Structure formats: C-alpha cells, structure tokens
Amino acid sequence: MTELLASEHSLDLSGLVKRGDTVMWGQANAEPLALTQALMQQRQRIGNFRVFLGITDSDTCRPEHADCVEFLSYCGSGENRALAKAGALQILPSHYSEFPSLIRQGLLQVDVLMLQLASADALGRYSLGLAHEYLLPALEKARLVIAEVNQACPWTYGERYLHAKELDLIVHTNRPPLQSRAIAPGPVERDIAQRVAERIQHGSTLQLGIGAIPEAVLHALHGHRELGVHSGTIGDGVADLMQNGVITNSRKSQDKGVTVAGVLMGSEALHRFAHCNPSIRMRSTAYTHCAQTLAAQHQFVAINSAIEVDLTGQINAESVGGNYIGALGGAVDFLRGARQSRGGLPIIALPSTAGARSRIVSQLSGPVSTPRSDAGLIVTEYGVADLRGLSLSQRARCMIEIAHPDYREQLKRDAASL
Q1: Core-most of 47, 178, 304, 356, by most CB within 10 Å?
Q2: C-alpha distance from residue 8 to each of 11, 167, 171, 294, 333 (Å)
Q3: Are 261 and 234 a contacting pair, CB within 8 Å?
Q4: C-beta neighbour count of 243 within 10 angstroms
Q5: Cα–Cα distance for residue pair 87/92, rounded to 1 Å
Q6: Is the CB of residue 28 less than 8 Å from the CB of residue 54?
Q7: Where are the domains of the chain?
Q8: How far, in Å, CA of 18 to CA of 49, rounded?
C-alpha cells in the first residue's frame, strides 16, 4: 500500500489502470475528485477504458472525454445529462436492487474501484463516508482499490469499514466534498407535497426519491410525529426533520432509532449533521432495496416522482423527447415494498404539466419504467388517484381527474379506446 498527497506529481494512475478496465466510484457527493480528475487527465496515456457512473454532481466526465472513455450509467441525472445529450452515455436499464448481484456475478464488471473515505478513527477504521450502496460488492470484485482519504469527509457509521491493508493506494486530501444542488420547490410542488403529507400517518417509515417534490414533502411533514426513514438517498430535509424531533425512527419495525440510507446527497449542513452521528446508518443496496426488508417495515411509504404517467398507471421515469434524463433506478423496488408493507403507501408524485405538455398522457413518450401492475397512488396538484384495485376504465377516469383541466377533454376522448 502506497500513501501520497494529492498535490504530488507522482499520482500517476496510468501505471495502475489498464486498457480495457472498468472503473467505478461513489456517486454524487461521494465522488473522489482527486482521483477522478486525475483519471480523466491521464485517459489518453491509459488507453481505452470504461467508467461506470452514478448520479454526478461534478463535470469531471465530459463529452470530449469519450475519445478514450466509454461511459456507462443507470441514470441521466445531474451532469450525466450533458453526456447523454452528446450521445456519449450508455444506459444500464436495471433495477437498483439488481446491482449487487450483477457486480458479484461479473455481469457488471469492476476492475478498479475509487473511493472517497473519511479519515481513520482511533481503531484505524476508514469510513465510507457519504455512500455505501453498490460500492460494497464492488470491493469484493475489484482488482485494485484506490482511496482518497479526505479530512473533510464526514465519518459515518455503516455496515462496512476499511483498513489500510485493504487499500492499494491512499491519496490524502482536505477539501469540501461535493454538494448536491438544491432545487427550490414552487407553488405547484408545495401543493403536491401537501396532498402527499395528508396521506402519511404518524409513525410511518419513509423512502424518498430526489428532487424538488420529495424535499417539499419533508417540509410539509413538520407537524407529524415519530416518523422513520429507510431510503436509498437522504438529503438536507431529512437532517432538518431529525434535528427538529419529527424523524425519530422510534416506531420502525426494523432498525429502530436509526435512519438508514445508502447515499447522502445534500449540502455541507447534511455532511456536518451526519459526521459521527450514530442515529444515521449507511447501508448497502443489498439492504436498502431488499424486498423482504421493505415489506417488513410497518407503514412503509415510498415517495418517488416521474416524467409522465399514462391513463392506466404505466410510469415513465427515464426519458422525454428522446433525451435520457432520469432512471429506472429503485422506484419499482420501493413501490413494491410499500405495497407489501402493512399500512404502506406506494406514491408517485408529479406536476400535471411540463411547460405546454401534459404529464398525464394517453400514451407514454418513453419507456415503461414502472408497469401499471405496480402503480399505487398518483398525486398531482389537482388531486390523488389511488389506482389500487381499479379496472382500466376506472383508472382512466381517476387519472383524468388529476390531469390539468386544459387536457382533460382530449384525455377523455383518448380513454374511449382503452
């Protein structure tokens, strides 16, 4: 194991990463910038290789880097949109819960794993800091593990810690981790959030997607009590409700007293709150998205968004106008878990329009990310359509009622052919 300072010129990855390798690193705030920036700068010396990306909060990987790098991702979120728009991003259309098995079976290859770690504690344990998720199975498979040990990275509790002997190269830095850009909710998002909040009972356990609506929902929950969280990602809104005593996790069926998450995506305030905080526990995708774990949570509420929903409940969360901007991701995993949970609520929340286009449609313009058999409650600013137990014609009537009034007559005509 070799230790370097990031400023040293000896950070030569071209002698470590090989032509044809697949490189993976933590997504969003967990990206090890000192390593990823060096990798892109040295790409031509390395030769052609592949990178697996999650959500990106930096512009480290740019379209011009496709001269030597093949970019693969499960999503078009964040800065990935520039890659997707340029035709430089390959999409892996897999459920998030499948990533651990894909990696372990070698179907999703990982040769080099790059990690951002928090400084070691008194026991010599490096914390994975801002992300566990699919990094744990990657640790088992990678030929080479390179770590940026960042003094400013929060040390978080988790199911896995690392020791120096497990790392092939350590690069020491002291820089603020990346932060996720906050999306301020507008009046429509706040109306939707209020409708969602009214459906959530005290003591429920929440899963939240990313974006303006989930954050608005959290703000609308300040009057609730004894909520819990089991989610793939958490952000500033969860930290705020924990600090204000709304999220206590005291009534969770599993992991009582602890907020469970796979990734932290937020601001410096979230990072400070999570540092050495035993009430937050980072877990791998194999746990956060496990069907049995989700179903066992009493009153498990899954809150996710979408690009559009058709009159029968089919959901497109991936692309619009030929542009890949979203993800298949973990929505289906969580919606199914909520449907199986006692008192659970599977919720998709979205504005009724996007510009001059209705988001309640007779026919999707993109793929079916979530089949209609998994649809539950669809929420817009005009109401809530609970599709559970309804026939196709009943669903169509309910969906038209929550569409924007300007599009309802056309949707009624389209529904006649269902």
Answers
A1: 304
A2: 6, 19, 9, 46, 44
A3: yes
A4: 11
A5: 14
A6: yes
A7: 2-173, 187-415
A8: 7
Spatial distance between the Cα atoms of 196 and 348, rounded to a whole number of angstroms: 9
Question: What tokens were used for 201?
Answer: 């009972």
Tell the residue number behind the tokens 């924007």, with chain if given. 404
Looking at residue 249, its pLDDT comes to: 98
Weakest-pLDDT range from 284-288, 325-329, 347-351: 325-329
Fold of 187-415: Glutaconate Coenzyme A-transferase (3.40.1080)
- How many C-beta neighbours within 10 Å does residue 406 have? 11
First CA to last CA distance, the chain: 64
* Residue 59 near residue 80, CB atoms below 8 Å: no
**How much of the chain, in percent, has pLDDT values that exceed 70?**
98
DSSP string, 142-193: -SEEEEEEETTSPP-EES-EE-GGG-SEEEEE--PPP-PPP----HHHHHHH
CATH number for the segment(s) 2-173: 3.40.1080.10
Q: pLDDT at residue 349 above 90?
A: yes
Q: Which residues, including other chains, have CB under 8 Å from residue 319's CB and lie 6 or more apart?
A: 76, 307, 325, 326, 365, 366, 367
pLDDT, tens digit, for every residue of 177-224?
A: 999 988 889 999 999 999 999 999 999 999 999 989 999 999 999 999
Q: d(Cα 255, Cα 253) in Å, to the nearest integer? A: 7
The conformational region for residue 203 under phi > 0 = left, psi -120 to 50 = alpha, else beta, is left
Structure tokens at 227: 């909520």
% of the chain surpassing 90 pLDDT: 95
pTM above 0.90, yes or no: yes
Residue pointed to by tokens 């029968």: 312
Closest CA to 232 of 84, 364, 75: 75
Task: State the virtual CA torsion across 353, 402, 390, 395 in degrees, nearest 10.
Answer: -50
Sorting pLDDT into bands at 50, 70 and 90, what band is 49? very high
Beta bridge partners of 52: 24, 72
Same topology for domains 2-173 and 187-415, yes or no? yes
Residue 243 tokens, joined: 């600090």
